[in-house]
Amino acid sequence: MNDPVNQKEPTMTQTPTESSNTAITDFGIDTTTMSTSEAVRDYVSRLRAGQLGSLPALLGLVALVIMFASLSDVFLSLNNLANLLAQGAGQTIIAMGIVFVLLVGEIDLSAGTASGVAGAVLAMHFAENGNLMGGMGSTVFVLFLAALGLGAVLAALLRIWAGTAISVLGIVIAASGMAANPWIEMLLALCTGTAIGCITGYLVSRIGMPSFVVTLALFLAWQGVILQFIGEGGVIGISSSPVLNQVANGNLSVLGSWVLCVVAVGGFAALTLGRHYSRLRRGLVTQPTSIVFFKAGAMAAIGIAATALLTINRAPNDNIVITGVPYVVPIVLGLLVIGTYVLNRTQYGRHIYAVGGNREAARRAGVNVTKIRASVFVVCSSVAALGAIVYSSKVGSVDPQAGGLNTLLFAVGAAVIGGASLFGGRGRVSDAVIGGSVLAVVANGLGLLSQPAAVVSIVTGLVLLLAATVDALSRRRAASAAR
Amino acid sequence: MSEPILHITGLNKTFGPVHVLHDIDLDVRAGEVTALVGDNGAGKSTLVKCIAGIHGADSGTVEFQGKPVHIRSPKDAAELGIEVVYQDLALADNLDIVQNMFLGRERGSSWLLDEASMEKAARETLASLSVRTVKSVRTPVSALSGGQRQTVAIAKSVLWDSKVVLLDEPTAALGVAQTRQVLDLVRRLAEQGLGVVLISHNMADVFEVADRIAVLYLGRMVAEVHTKDVTHGQVVELITAGRSGDIGLARPEHAVL
Ligand SMILES: Nc1ncnc2c1ncn2[C@@H]1O[C@H](COP(=O)(O)OP(=O)(O)OP(=O)(O)O)[C@@H](O)[C@H]1O
Ligand SMILES: [Mg+2]
């Protein structure tokens, strides 16, 4: 069964370019484009093989929305929908960071309380007008600075220079005692989260402790730190700052909402279609044009419909007017775009998937596995700090429970429900958004039906269990389909 | 005879108390296929992994193109132009064929990968290996058969401008046609002036493509001979007993792992 073409081709290795035409026809049944029906069949067969992606979560979301809409008149009211977005945003953002950790097959149980620490620092900087030393007491303040410094040093040892730079920035902000400014406060929260992530990442990746144990220990430790910062029974209000209050409670103007809509919908369409046609032109693997148009069209329809609804006055009484898309929407969308870009288009993202898929293969390919594993914890804690800004803004204050209770479990749950695998290698940032929406709908809907907290917890737990089951079963199918 | 491109002397490797490789000397010459043979557990894969920078050797020197080198990581090996196809395939299941072939050496800037150029190069390399059963280069590796994976792993190693290629049982999982392809490929690589090391348990394959045969017996290099100077039977004897006539260890019964 010798191949006559290849036998006569002595230079087939490094640069097979000159014979590329014969080579491509030679490449058996390789296909670059599919017809629509082929693509649909291909998709179905992938579903059969256990590659479900976000499909179960999306179906679940639709089912939940239909259920709550039929049980409660208020559920589909515009005011409630806008409220739901803001309620779910904090945990969704934390879940986005957790996706990075899950992708390399690790877990970060401390993301919730780490975000709480960031929130507490933010609130204290605001309440004490920048005098963190006064608020914390000098010993605690010095320890706080030392922790930021430790994060910077450990990041440097791992050669994660961005982690070092951001941690050092945190020291500068904290030590300089700048007066309260909402933007400075948010930046400080982010720096705190980053420094925490550097510590976690070093312990897991360089020292080699299991992430479960490290982050369980840190979960408890950070909870203590929050308590130390805020004090037993204390509450620090932040809603008196217009900016901090608006993050999760404010809305874009009507004009701004439509600008966002045009940018998001137009940008998505331009990117997907542009990419599609450039790949078609170069003879690369593409989806059928009809399906690409369908996706872009569906996104446009959803985006325009949502913007139209959210720009209608949704005030519950006649005295005030509430219109516009909540600020949390562009915040979550922005993070979604950045996260998706990083994971899909950059070398860093590619290496994250590789480490999650086969750590040894990644190592042999020259990937710096230690650094990648550490860096995902930095990303996770940094993003969790952003989540803390949003949920603290929503509540209007930070108390010792910030980031505790169910914050983490909901965030991990959101990622897993959306389709990210706990076993590593599989997941997308959008999974966190979809899963976060599912949990937000559950919490909001059961709240409207005035179900007690007991029922909310039980139902959420069951939803998570269902998602984990789907994950495990689809992995089994994928494994058996592979061989 | 040309100078060896890769010249290994006195290489030792232990895993804890187990001494797996004893004072290994090995020469790999450009333009030649060196077959590395030995029984299961003789240390062939371990030797390859030491050369590739996966395992650090305990002692020994490695000279590459006449210069002493220190290969501490797979990256060092790749930079020298040493490519390895591992017996336990080193592919990430969740990535597709293109992503696997370029893993660690992606094209484009690190902030925006050049997918188009990688996809084309991958397709062309696979085409030249006559991979006829893969539906698309964007198929995830998890959906490939064992032989297809093997081919991807081999394609990955010939994609680069390499000087030495080490293949650890590359045909073990392959069908008749693919085995033929790989053996032809091994010959062609050598004809292009690369140094090729082929590990195989199949004596017919070894005698067909190898210029020289190096035999490992319980972690010791017992013979490095020209293929034309030995018979099948002698090599089998060297593999199983460490000695054949006047070739091999003087007292193989004293060799313990
Ligand atoms: N990571 C490791 N830790 C401890 N011992 C190891 C390790 N890798 C290999 N060994 C031991 O080293 C010896 C040589 O193994 P190696 O895999 O090199 O054999 P091989 O010649 O490639 O065999 P095969 O033909 O079966 O592939 C074996 O006894 C094995 O048990
Ligand atoms: Mg072996």
Overview of the molecule:
Chain B: This is Sugar ABC transporter ATP-binding protein. Chain B: Keywords: ATP-binding, Nucleotide-binding. Chain B: GO terms for molecular function: ATP binding; ATP hydrolysis activity. The complex is a heterodimer of chains A (483) and B (257). Chain A is mainly α and 483 residues long. Helices cover 73% and strands 1% of the residues of chain A. With 257 residues, chain B is an alpha/beta fold. Chain B has a single domain, classed as P-loop containing nucleotide triphosphate hydrolases (Rossmann fold), CATH 3.40.50.300. Helix content of chain B is 32%, strand content 29%.
As for the CATH topology of chain B, it is: Rossmann fold
Beta-strand portion of chain A reads under 5%
Q: What's the story with the biggest beta sheet of chain A?
A: 2 strands, antiparallel
The number of strands of chain B is 14
Largest sheet of chain B, if any?
Answer: 6 strands, mixed
Order of helices and strands of chain B: EEEHEEHEHEEHHEHEHEEHEE
As a percent range, the share of helical residues of chain A equals: over 70%
Q: Kindly, what is the distance between the CA atoms of the first and last residues of chain B, rounded to a whole number of angstroms?
A: 33 Å
Number of domains of chain A: 2
Q: Which stretches of chain A of 5+ consecutive residues score pLDDT under 50?
A: 1-29
Give me the Rg of chain A, rounded.
24 Å
CATH topology of the largest domain in chain A: ABC transporter involved in vitamin B12 uptake, BtuC
Strand line-up in the sheet with most strands of chain A: 1-2
What is the CATH architecture term of the largest domain in chain A? Orthogonal Bundle
Indicate the radius of gyration of chain B in whole angstroms: 18 Å
Structural domains of chain B: how many: 1
SS class of chain B: alpha/beta
Beta-strand fraction estimate of chain B? 25-35%
Record field, number of beta strands of chain A? 2
Ligands in the structure?
A: adenosine-5'-triphosphate, magnesium ion
Q: State the share of residues found in helices of chain B, binned by percent.
A: 25-40%
